[in-house]
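Hello forum,

I keep getting stuck at the same step: I have a sequence, I want structure tokens, and every attempt I make locally crashes halfway through. Rather than fight my setup again tonight, could one of you with a working pipeline run this one for me? It's a single chain of 126 residues.
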Amino acid sequence: MNFPENLKYSDDHEWILVEGNVATIGITDYAQNELGDIVFVDIDPNLSDVHAGETLGTIEAVKTVSDLLVPCSGKIIEINEALADAPEDVNTDPYGKGWMIKIEISNSSEIEKLLDVEAYKNKIGQ
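Reply #2:
Ran it on my machine without issues. Output:
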């Protein structure tokens, strides 16, 4: 499994890439593997301001439906619209084309509470 070292990770298996005050968020390689073949990503288009731990929407796989949680607070500035036509991108490229949302971070101290790559790997037994 792939765990990029430049990312932060949540206990709920989301990854976050911080660039300035913008965070790109998706689910980890581990999470997509556990879910199986992803067939639908449903992110609420009416959300604007989100708070850490809130549900953004759901990820539907052949086996199950899982909530997508936001690991930090901020204002949604972009949703990956391509996932509507290609949800399988989450399986094939979870850290690239499979990203879900971008937010403008409103509380940077929340980022410091997230896991680094070694802590995340320990959490999932890797």
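The mean pLDDT is 94. If your local run keeps crashing, start a new thread with the error log.
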